[in-house]
Amino acid sequence: MIAGTNRVEGRKYAETCQLSERAVAALIRADLKAAVETREIPCGFKFRVRRRTASYSAAIDITITGIPAGFRIYDREHLRTGRPGWMSTEASAIRRRVEAVAAAYNYDNSQIEVDYFDVRFYSSVDFAWQLKDAEREVVFAELEAERVPARPSQSVQESFIEWVAA
């Protein structure tokens, strides 16, 4: 944090502050690849790093497009009970690690109290929708096989949709 401000800089911001968002996205891509090679992130993960720009802002979106065999994105228990908090502990840890890679190149001088937002770029990290959909179908099928429905004709997925709509 810089004295007298709310400004927080990532550990690689100072050395890259003159670079464009395109160059920063390339550096993030390289850091993620290196993290997989050094096992900071387990083997089998693949990432897509894209930048978006608007008139006064920029964003770097990181999508996890590949996961190792057996890795679970969803917390099965949360899907079964319908409680919030859908992401598994392992998926949440990977997401935080990827967010930290992007944050290393960013700064944040925002003052939320007065709706003032000042960042180098906005960022998001998420699993690809194809991975989430495929796993959700598998988890719902597993839960369906284990479950005695509240109503004989109600599936787990229908129960989940009812809960979300409520």
The poorly predicted ranges are none
Assembly classification: single chain
Mean pLDDT across the residues is 85
Number of domains: 1
Total helical elements: 6
Radius of gyration: 20 Å
Shape: globular
Strand % is: 15-25%
3D structure, described in words:
The chain has helices at 13-16, 21-37, 76-81, 89-103, 129-146, 156-165, and strands at residues 8-9, 46-53, 58-66, 107-108, 122-127. With 166 residues, it is an alpha+beta fold. The protein has one domain. The strands form two sheets. A three-stranded mixed beta sheet has the order 2-3-5. A two-stranded antiparallel sheet has the order 1-4. Strand 2 and strand 3 form a beta hairpin. The protein is globular. The mean pLDDT is 85.
Summarize, please.
The chain has 166 residues and is α+β, with helices and mostly antiparallel strands. It contains six helices and five strands, in the order βααββααββαα. The longest helix is centred in the C-terminal third of the chain and has 18 residues, at 129-146.
